[in-house]
Amino acid sequence: MLSYISAVSLGFVLGFVRLVGAHPYTVHDTYIGGSFYNGFTAQAISDPTNGRVNYVDTPTAQGLNLTYASSDTFILRTDFTSFLDPNGPGRDSVRLISNNVYTTSVIVADIRHMPQGCATWPALWTVANPWPNLGEIDIIEGVNDQSPNQATLHTTPGCTQPANRAQTGKSVSNDCNTYVNNNVGCGVRSTLSNSYGPSFNSNGGGWYAMERTSSSITVWFWPRGSGPPSNVANGENFIDTSTWGEPMALFVNDSCDIASKFGPHNILINLTLCGTWAGQPSVYSSAGCPGSCVDHVNNNPSAFTNAYFEFASLRVYT
Ligand SMILES: *[C@@H]1O[C@H](CO)[C@@H](O)[C@H](O)[C@H]1NC(C)=O
Ligand SMILES: *[C@@H]1O[C@H](CO)[C@@H](O)[C@H](O)[C@H]1NC(C)=O
Ligand SMILES: *[C@@H]1O[C@H](CO)[C@@H](O)[C@H](O)[C@H]1NC(C)=O
């Protein structure tokens, strides 16, 4: 009898521990095909990174076929047919912002293709207004086809990361403070070459996920064909991140109060060309790109044929 009672109470304790340690979420928003238009708005703003782009609004993007939806795909791209007047506006492109904001949540993006080509600087990221008070989380970002992907946090002063964390990626900088080190933030590079650019695309893309809790920010990447968790692969309504294995990047609360450094965030998907990172002459030429970045954008529309994101789905769980 005693052992029965102990077994029952032990079961209770284990059950409780499991609940506390588990990270179950329920789907809150599902974006597939045309529903991206319900959840996201194209911002016709001048590019904050000084890119050689002209961001257009939603009707213009649709009219020019720079965004395109079918039942199971959503495409966002830059113009790839126009020659540009060097004194006129940049190449038409799209910057989408989610209508909803999220705090504690998991974003799972199933991506078939990401923008490719010299001068491209695509990003999938989250941010609060006004920047940088409530942080920025870059999930996918890179320039000029240079693999691998890097996930990065940008914050106000007072957020650093320990050099060694339980992640498969490689920390390249550990101070998340936007105002030091030319705003490189605290970044973690994937060890997988197919995490970004042409090799991501030739592999059929993959899944990126980002979880925010009050004490951590975590990014996972599973290349297509790598056997991601089944709830990710199947786009299930319920997910449990505690079963997902070691992430690509883990940002912890040890010397960074995650809950106060990061507020309610919009999700952004933007594609600029050149600008303060991709267009930096040394960065651009060391990627093996031709001539000057801006000339390349102005004079070679067909070089941007593959400068597009193709999403199979984007889900947000809370
Ligand atoms: C619009 O873009 C889609 C996807 O890239 C393409 O399949 C379609 O043919 C394009 N439509 C036109 C009218 O160009
Ligand atoms: C998108 O815009 C934001 C500024 O609002 C910038 O921080 C980010 O680097 C941009 N990324 C791209 C790819 O344009
Ligand atoms: C996170 O760290 C801050 C100090 O940096 C601390 O005040 C806070 O309680 C911590 N939060 C959690 C959830 O551990």
UniProtKB/TrEMBL annotation:
Keyword Mitochondrion: no
SUPFAM superfamilies, sorted: Concanavalin A-like lectins/glucanases
Gene3D superfamilies, per the entry: 2.60.120.200
Gene Ontology terms for molecular function: hydrolase activity, hydrolyzing O-glycosyl compounds
Keyword vocabulary terms for this entry: Hydrolase, Signal
Pfam families referenced in this protein's UniProt entry, alphabetically: GH16_XgeA
GO BP annotations, alphabetical order: glucan catabolic process
Signal peptide: 1-22
GH16 domain mapped to chain residues: 30-286
Protein name: Glycoside hydrolase family 16 protein
Organism: Hydnum rufescens UP504
Native organism taxonomy: Eukaryota, Fungi, Dikarya, Basidiomycota, Agaricomycotina
